[in-house]
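== Protein entry: sequence and backbone fold ==
=== Local backbone shapes as whole numbers ===
==== Amino acids and backbone structure tokens ====
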Amino acid sequence: MRIRLLLAAGDRDYEEHLSQVLLDRYEDIFEVQICSTPEQIAELAGKRAFDIALVSPEFAGACSGHPAALTLALLEDGAAGGTAAGIRKYQRISHLVGSLLERYAAVSATAHGGEGGGRVTVAWSPAGGTGKTTAALAYAAQRVAEGKRVLYLNLESFSSSPLYFAESGRSISAVFAKLDGNVEVLLQGLRQQDAGSGIYYFGRPENYDDIHILTEEDQERLLRACARSVDEVVVDTAGGYGQRIRALLETADAILLLTDNTPASWEKLRQFQEQNNLFEAVRERAILVVNKGGRRQNCPLERTVALPWVQAEDPIVVYKTLSARFAGLG
């Protein structure tokens, strides 16, 4: 279910431009109704309900008989009255949309879209340094190339996302204290879409503790909310193994199980296979990803992806070069 937006800016050129961008880039989020006069707004009273009303100050009176969950005045730069009940008219539309969704999430009680959603794919390795992030992004880029809406979610303690995305984006930290609310709408306001790959992503956490203190229940709410608005969520996990990692692996629809060309990574994979009862539970959903030009060794997983060593200093070039290796795995 999309958010119903009433746009009454009193400026036809602005209305048409904004509504066209929303249609082109945010069609899955908004349903837009334009009203250019107070009379048109009055005609809608009693006929349609709206979630957000975005109106010029002179139209505020006309909207009083047509209440919405959130009504915001479109303010010209330098206009008096602050932004408590308003929003700047002339700013980057991605920022305007983010602000709209963040404010709407604060006043709406439930998330849109029900309990369904896209699938969750987790990239994990029992060894460090195997290239989880590279593999996760290569897989995500290939899924986008196959026509899917894909969100990359980095749950590492220290995120390397700024190396891969040109814009840092708004920090995902803004959602962690609000996981009991309408987090789905808030997340849609926070996410960015990378122009080069088409992957959706969030800005890195503001500090280490923001990720570190998430409980298993928090993690589940976050994943469920992320998955409702996309076809697939690709999760880049923190190193090591603990209850949060186990919970991710138990509930994931697919697992990219990483190793590379080092003896240590294969030994740790062997120990996970032989000593942890979780291996058998996730075996059918796991895909062995042998990174950095490594050769497959003894492992009972049937599905395998071999990633060659790519000689490039730019990490973006590396993951895009490898992305085609994941074709057909979705």
